[in-house]
Automatic annotation (TrEMBL):
Listed EC numbers: 2.6.1.9
InterPro entries: Aminotrans_II_pyridoxalP_BS, Aminotransferase_I/II_large, HistidinolP_aminotransfase, PyrdxlP-dep_Trfase, PyrdxlP-dep_Trfase_major, PyrdxlP-dep_Trfase_small
Pathway membership, UniProt: Amino-acid biosynthesis; L-histidine biosynthesis; L-histidine from 5-phospho-alpha-D-ribose 1-diphosphate: step 7/9
GO function terms (MF aspect): histidinol-phosphate transaminase activity; pyridoxal phosphate binding
Protein name (Swiss-Prot/TrEMBL): histidinol-phosphate transaminase
The UniProt record lists the keyword Manganese: no
The keyword Lipid biosynthesis is annotated on this UniProt entry: no
All copies of domain Aminotransferase class I/classII large, residue ranges: 37-359
One Gene Ontology term from the biological process aspect of the record: L-histidine biosynthetic process
Keywords: Amino-acid biosynthesis, Aminotransferase, Histidine biosynthesis, Pyridoxal phosphate, Transferase
Length: 368
């Protein structure tokens, strides 16, 4: 045999990625998007202080980044009210999820998630040979009680649950999440993805003790802090679990500029408040545009809005394709019945003006 000998697991996997990026779509269509409203990035940008810190740190790029991310972890520990040993920094939530699955999931091990929830988590589970068990949404919300019940039935090692949710933007009270932990089966860890929690109403973040061995919480600088391209996420969990990541993580995965920028962004509360206000205004505008076109916006606690197109998934896909053809990049849920919606990221006034112009035409084309 000439060439590499792949493992049987790798041989069984499809050669794909969870998302087709907007750049690839732009290359396929031969033109840039006029409005980039599909990836839940912050079109309002990062803190100017974060940009200044990144530029200053660029002169030190000849050095490796601190493999412990000490200064950023210390600031995050203070921000979260936990100990330094309870915090881990990684290459976005995606990177943290991959390492978490690698830590816990051997081939054949059961893992539970919602059918239609964040597909990158599924990508990691399948990539390590785990057995995915999926629970349907209930009323466009992830059903934590049903997830826990399924975990008990299949002896799952891990549950994935996002609050607020992606792709629907719905949310649960933190107190309800905390109460549900008492039903978690022994030996099962809840991965609580809080990527969008900075946009959510007060009381959404669950007040879970950092040393609670039943939960790992994950947050990011990609959304409210506007640093998606820097790839910075962080996890809060019991010390023993955080320490276990040192067995497998890429110890030089965090570059110097990203760490410096995140540290400055975390300390710029005024910019965060500015972005939160802009997102709230944009959510209202998306809802207004949807309503003007006879569509319903699902209430959102995130920086995007799921818009119910009022029919089935085929119709919503036709609407999405027509928007993309008109230079508006949006995405949609993948699973029935949530696939009746399209998902629109919050944007600036100019971005949403492009959407407002294109949506009536896209709907007419889809209906035609």
């Amino acid at each position: 045999m000439i060439g590499p000998r792949y493992t049987s697991l790798v041989e069984s996997l499809p050669a794909n990625v969870p998302f087709v990026g907007p750049e690839e779509q732009e290359r396929a269509r031969g033109a840039p998007f006029a409005a980039r409203l599909g990836a839940n990035e912050s079109l309002f940008g990062p803190s100017p202080k974060a940009l200044a810190a990144i530029r200053a740190e660029a002169e030190q790029v000849w050095k490796y980044g601190d493999p412990t991310s000490h200064d950023l972890r210390a600031a995050l520990a203070e921000h979260m009210g936990v100990a330094l040993e309870n915090v881990l920094v990684g290459e976005g939530i995606d990177g943290l999820l991959g390492n978490l699955v690698r830590l816990l999931v051997a081939p054949g091990d059961a893992v539970v998630t919602s059918d239609g929830a964040y597909p990158t988590f599924n990508y990691h589970v399948v990539g390590f040979g785990g057995a995915l068990h999926k629970v349907p949404y209930r009323d466009d919300r992830e059903d934590l009680g049903a997830l826990i019940s399924r975990a008990r039935e299949v002896d799952a090692k891990l549950i994935y649950y996002a609050n607020p949710d992606n792709p629907m933007g719905t949310w649960a009270r933190g107190a309800d999440v905390l109460a549900a932990l008492d039903d978690l089966p022994p030996g099962c860890l809840l991965c609580l993805d809080e990527a969008y929690v900075e946009f959510a109403p007060e009381g959404t973040a669950a007040e879970i003790a950092a040393d609670d061995p039943r939960v790992i919480r994950m947050r990011t600088f990609s959304k409210a802090y506007g640093m998606a391209g820097a790839r910075i996420g962080y996890a809060v969990a019991a010390t023993a679990l955080i320490k276990s990541f040192d067995k497998i993580r890429n110890h030089f995965g965090m570059n110097r500029m990203a760490q410096a920028g995140a540290l400055a962004a975390l300390h710029d509360a005024d910019w965060l408040a500015h972005v939160q206000a802009e997102v709230a205004r944009a959510r209202d505008e998306i809802a207004r545009i949807a309503g003007e076109n006879g569509l319903r916006a699902i209430p959102s606690a995130t920086n995007f809005v799921a818009v119910d197109c009022g029919r089935d998934g085929d119709f919503a896909r036709a609407v999405l394709a027509a928007l993309v053809a008109r230079g508006v990049f949006v995405r949609m849920p993948f699973v029935v019945p949530q696939d009746r919606c399209i998902r629109i990221s919050c944007g600036r006034a100019a971005d949403l003006a492009v959407l407002a112009e294109a949506l009536p035409e896209a709907l007419a084309e889809a209906r035609g």
